[in-house]
Amino acid sequence: MAWWLVGLALALPWLTGALWVRGVWRDASAGVWPLALGYGYLLGSLAASLLLRLQAALGFRPSVIGPLSVLAALALMGGWLAWRQARRVDRLDLSANRLERSWCEQPFWQRALFALLLAWLGWRLAGLAQEIWWRPLYPWDAWTTWTVRPRVWSELREWVPFVDPRRWLADASGSVYAIEAWTYPATVPLLALWPTLAFGAWNETAANLPWFGAALALGFGFYGQARLWGAASLTALVFTWLSLSLPILNTHVALAGYADLWMALVFGLAAIAFFQWLRNGDRRQGILALLLALACPLIKLEGAVWLSMFVPALLVVWLRGWSLWLMAGIAVVLGIVWWSVGGVTFNLPGWGWFRLRPDLIEVPYLGRFNLGYRGTWGPVLKNFFVLANWHLFWYLALVAVAVAVPGLPKARWRSAAAVFVGSCLLMLFVLFFLTDAQRWAEQYTSINRVFLHFVPALLFWVMMVFVPSHPSCENGRQNRYSPSEAGPSTGGEYPPV
């Protein structure tokens, strides 16, 4: 019975999120349901974690009963919304039969290759599921950081606080706990806690199952967005296969417990929706991008840095002509002044001291980084181009950059997407070549984990370079709505194949 409750606890948030995402899509474009399943799992899981936070804030003990009741009500509302949209689609004669006929019209070799890749992915995911089911909690960071809190909360059935070791030593009541990473966000621990509350006791298999769902969500979300982009079903599946077959990503699924897979999922799906919004101004994609981008700091502390990567691209979108050059000039002047005066130091109440100097960056919770060029390219190049963590992904990325550069002036959204990618790569360059984090590359440790956060977004951008979007969306932000919302004058719908 306990495992049935675990299944319900994992399935109900997924169903709720998927129904709401599908309910706001008013057309039957190919890829909408996979997109709803991918983004729905993530949004539903985040909603469950927020309900647990609310439960703790209201003083209730950890339990799934209240959150499941709320999610069930939301699922009914989402189901009604999706049913309304399905009736509207029927009136537009965009039925599943039409999609099936288009699939049957494809060449046999394409359908055979599609089936082969799908079976390959299914076999690989089945192996990862067995790893999660059979292997006890293994990763070191899971023991010391991410699953300490959910295990304590699960076994005590109380929201006991976690504080820094100094406060723990000074506390004589014995009612507080301490870990080194006590300032880390609670979202990932809550995601691990959720199924164990349904199980009724601490169980490491139950705690790790959400990581397998995260891999499924990435696959569904990536494939659905690729189809909405205009990629054929086989092309979309090829790039989805490239994403899910990355060895470093598979490792983070099989050895569940780290937060990096969730960071890659949240930031990756946010960036992909952002790319779609840049292309055609679809408000639904914009809302998805906004929700997930704001969720980045809830996953890891560095999520705030990933959130800031959206700002340069937004400036390219919102500022034009002289205003863009004026903003760039102001930024250059401020940079020169900052360098000349030796940086700035200030204190924010409730946060702490910020020190931003040419030789030092210190930000509360993020850490202290000494600045200075550390030109050790060997470990970085070996990690990307020699070792087996990434297969041949970075070779493909280099080719995509060479192909993309000549076409950037053709559309503003292409330039904005390139600015986004460039901002992320520049930030990673600063981290690994201008700070003490260079030793993470030299020791072959966190460099691959940090780059994993960015790779799903980068892979989708690579697909954008090689796969042209549907002509009805090439006018950028002029075509804001789907045909069912704005009528045929806004351009044709996405083809089902």
Give the N-to-C terminal Cα separation. Answer: 43 Å
State the order of secondary-structure elements, H for helix, E for strand: HHHHHHHEHEHHHHHHHHHEEEEHHHHHH
Mean pLDDT: 86
Q: How many DSSP E strands?
A: 6
Strand content: under 5%
Give the domain tally: 2
Discrete helix count: 23
Outline, from the CA principal axes?
globular
The percentage helix is 55-70%
Strand order of the largest sheet: 3-4-5-6
Any idea what the radius of gyration is?
23 Å
Question: Topology, pairings included?
Answer:
Blueprint: H1 2-23, H2 32-57, H3 65-91, H4 96-104, H5 108-134, H6 140-146, H7 148-156, E1 162-163, H8 165-170, E2 177-178, H9 187-199, H10 204-229, H11 233-244, H12 247-254, H13 260-280, H14 283-299, H15 303-308, H16 310-318, H17 322-340, E3 344-348, E4 352-357, E5 360-363, E6 367-370, H18 378-385, H19 393-404, H20 412-433, H21 438-442, H22 446-466, H23 483-486
Parallel strand pairs: 1-2
Antiparallel strand pairs: 3-4, 4-5, 5-6
Helix pairs in contact: 1-2, 1-3, 1-9, 2-3, 2-9, 2-10, 5-10, 5-11, 7-9, 9-10, 10-11, 10-12, 10-13, 10-22, 13-14, 13-22, 16-20, 19-22, 20-22
Condensed summary:
The two termini are 43 Å apart. It contains 23 helices and six strands. Residues 93-100 and 475-497 have low confidence and may be disordered.
